[in-house]
Amino acid sequence: SMHRNFTRVKVHDPHLTTKGLFATVRIRPMRKFSRNCIGLLIVAATTMGCDTLKARMVASDAATLYHEGHVEEAIAKYEQAAQLDPGIDTIQLNLGFANLALYQNNPKAKEGEDAANKAVVAFENFLKLKPGNERGRQYLVQTVVDTSRYDAAVQYYQPQIEKHDPEVFNTLGIIASKTGKFAEAKDWYTKRIEADPKNPDAKVSLGVLIWDYLHNHAEVTGDQRKQLADEGITQCKAAIDLAPNAPNAYTYTNLLYRERAAADLTDDEKRPDLEQANDYFKKAMQLIKAAQGKK
Predict the structure, then answer these.
(1) Could you tell me the pTM of the whole model?
(2) Which letter does DSSP use for residue 23 in this model?
(3) Percent of the chain with pLDDT over 70
């Protein structure tokens, strides 16, 4: 078959190379082709189309250049391959990886800034071709986070925002949180809960966000701290009502009560919150042990 002369190459992400996502490329150059090999290439060109075959061959050259450390030349080749056939998802994926590598080499230079923009576009194009691909979504999110492009993410997801897609609200909440935008993250997670009210994970996510914020912002004190903690506790308790055997909600209710106690000045004031925290901690441990016993 054709795959005797073509093979998968290890490109930029070792986790993807075994999943069949990358374009097939020549194992080695052959100056003289046998009749059988020429026939196979003709069949390949007929089956895939000349532009598709050329695109895969150019992508092969790009992969070689990348591994030799010629990142800019590799990007040029991937761009050429994408122009030949914009419908090959793995070329868009590798173009994103290559541009991300160039950005990481020069994060503060204009060259790095341009590469970051191109990486985001490439991952967006990949997701247009593979809309249900979770790993592709993670790459886009991480690229946006690494390059602090929160506003670009909001713009990209605008169509899904208008459709009140809870998963997009979750994605934007993650991006906002990782880029230091607590208020925006809280708003997205709240929108997710409103769009998917029966999902306990949505409620726990908001609780986790609030706990993380309080845990890392000791300057938030008094009533403001208690109000935020209470909001997180309310969401975690609602999650427990929906999924009483899931330990995470109990764990974060415990932690939120401890952050709430930090707003009190005396041990007597702290005691009720800490007692509540201990009760939820014990319940979480019971559920974790019970789950482990079933394995």
Answers:
(1) 0.69
(2) P
(3) 83
